[in-house]
Amino acid sequence: MAEASAKNGHGAAKGTSNGRARIWGGIDLGGTKIEAVIVDARGEVLGRARHVTPVKGGPGEVVKELYGALGDAAQTAGVEPTKLAGVGVGAPGSVDANSGTLAHTSNVAGGWEAPYPLASALGDLVGGKVVMGNDVQVAVAAEYKLGAGRNYRSVLGVWWGTGVGGGLVLNGVPWRGQGAAGEIGHMVVKANGARCGCGRRGCLEAYAGRAAMERKARAAVKQGEKTILFDIMHDKKRTRLASGVWARALKEKDPLATRLIDRAMEMMSVAIASVINLLDLEAVVIGGGLGSRLGMPYVERISDAMHPHLFSTERNPAMHVAELGDLSGAIGAALLAGPQM
User: Fold this and answer.
1) Which family does it belong to (predicted)?
2) What would the CATH number be for the domain defined by 2-138+327-337?
């Protein structure tokens, strides 16, 4: 299943003397979907495509689907994938940008632990160099350069989807620490709390990640609790509780969906407030599947819930929904590959 589209007003890409076009590909690998874009030197989207992330098959199957999504996006932009000036991939888990490997991917295609050379495997299909970055870090960089964070110098990005990821920009510079900075989903919000997919207890992701909330919902149904979540999932022909399923259940005031989302927002408010207390950032941008789908009303509720936890309430951070929406990760991955804003 794939969706593809091209931005109006753009024709086929212009070539360069070395046979490669002055356009780049970007791919956002998510727990439920793969988003691919083709962008020009200004970051304008020339073409895009969406594929479903494989639920099994491991890294080899993921690479095939990444290439398929990139090919569909390139087709809408009027260019062959082999003619792209570069390709970037934003991926969840442990990314080693220097070696181009991806490890510890609990939310993708059944997950794998050992480092897999994803960049070289995809590069063999593309016929060129592929660079990698953490999915949320590249998405936050895109929002900082082109989206909701462009008017600030210090930004926290929180990507609320299958898991909960984060990214930081400090004084205009993306902050990656030793490679894993921004992992707000693995901040402990409750000592000895719920078990997280990472194996630890009490992480934010164990309460707010869509995968964790789905496990909680399934357990509740087994115990006899009523919900329309899974009826909506079947109506939408989905196999998992995607963001649109949660949004519709909330709209229809489903008690279980409401309770789980309320708990998620409370835990997110604790984690975000703690980051603000530590770093005194100017702005928070919330994106990801659930963040973008639920939008500003829910972001405002998170902001309100942060107040009791903030040390300095007279300088509250500005709160925004990601302006680039579902495309922030893919655009950020493309910027990683070449265009400099």
Assistant:
1) Belongs to the ROK (NagC/XylR) family.
2) 3.30.420.40
